[in-house]
Please model this.
Amino acid sequence: MPRFVLFLSCFFLLLAAGSGQAAAQDAATGQTVTRAGAQAALQGPESFFTGAVRVQPLFPANDAAHFSGAYVTFEPGARTAWHTHPAGQHLVVVSGVGLTQAEGGPITEIRAGDVIWCPPQVRHWHGASPRTAMTHMALTGTRDGKNVVWMEKVTDQEYNGR
Model:
């Protein structure tokens, strides 16, 4: 009988996938599939970003996995404000060329395929290079319900390494 239930669950999951539903959950396993584009992209708020930035949420943190995921696309010259992460953040550059800097360190060029670890409480920024857009997948840890602490914007002088 359990195989039949599993078969039915998979069958209905496939049916849901074909019907254009945004998300489907397998009742037997609890596995959820969220369809690409099911969550609306957001403009990066002007108070936390300079330039045109688009945030595409992938998944929120939950009780079992204390991290969230999003694709973030920066148009040329766009960047985050200075910020820290209470539980750290991994960035996986998906396309383009970007820049990142931890306070007191050099500005480092990042490219598609590069993986950046931003340790907890390290003040830093990241964004696109001056001439090329950049998209990264951000996997951000959450501690005590918080995943980021925003600070002042990165000035043009800081961005340009002066």
About this structure: Residues 42-159 form a domain with the Jelly Rolls fold (CATH 2.60.120.10). The chain has two domains: 2-34, 42-159. Residues 1-21 have pLDDT under 50 and may be disordered. Helices lie at 2-18, 156-159.
